[in-house]
Amino acid sequence: MKLYFIPFACSLATRIAVEEAELEAEFIQVLPGQLLPDGRPFSAVSPMEYVPALETGGTVLSEGTVVLTYIADLAAEGVLAPAPYTEARYQMMRWLNFVATEVHKGVFSPLMTSKSSQGARDWALGMLHKRFDLLSRQLEGQDYLIGSFSVADAYLLAVLNWCEHAGVPIKTWPVLEAWRAKMRTRPSVVRAMATEMPLLQAA
Ligand SMILES: N[C@@H](CCC(=O)N[C@@H](CS)C(=O)NCC(=O)O)C(=O)O
């Protein structure tokens, strides 16, 4: 399995998942504007040219929620996701989708591009408040978005890592700040971040 990534992008969640479940994967760094090590343009793997992307045999998957669910299904049951068809599984899917659409794309994307007007930034920050309030209520008094660690937590951590860069005052949500700090001590997260930090600094 090949996993295409950009250091500290949302694809960090896939590395955390692989580390957590001790799976085998080859990580291939995507350098914007450059060909892949095998000589192909990244668009040959992922037509939208975004990470994460997963390639295995003849199959290519994109979209973080799908790639993460695929990885979760390779792992032993319960390590990265609850068993299929259980209520907990649907709760995990709910949070994965919430992080992808309402948090990552809905608020962090407009906050992290220099192309956003001040009006667009203000709007995104306003939306962020409601969404962070909800996450904060969900994580108050519990370690994970659902009853046990799942790929939804890995995705949320990858996104919360961007707060400082995006100008999001995470201190306003002490539950989220504490959750992020604790997650950053989880061995799989420590290993994933330690691998990507030098790549981020070199980029
Ligand atoms: N719809 C995609 C969006 C993924 C996405 O936005 N990826 C960003 C990194 S977080 C990316 O690769 N952007 C292209 C770039 O930075 O060059 C998904 O849900 O996975």
TrEMBL record:
Alphabetical UniProt keywords: Transferase
Source superkingdom: Bacteria
Record-level Gene Ontology MF annotations: transferase activity
Domain GST N-terminal: 1-79
Gene3D superfamilies in alphabetical order: 1.20.1050.10, Glutaredoxin
Any Pfam family hit: GST_N_2
Annotated GST C-terminal domain residues: 85-203
Keyword flag Protein transport: no
UniProt protein name: Glutathione S-transferase family protein
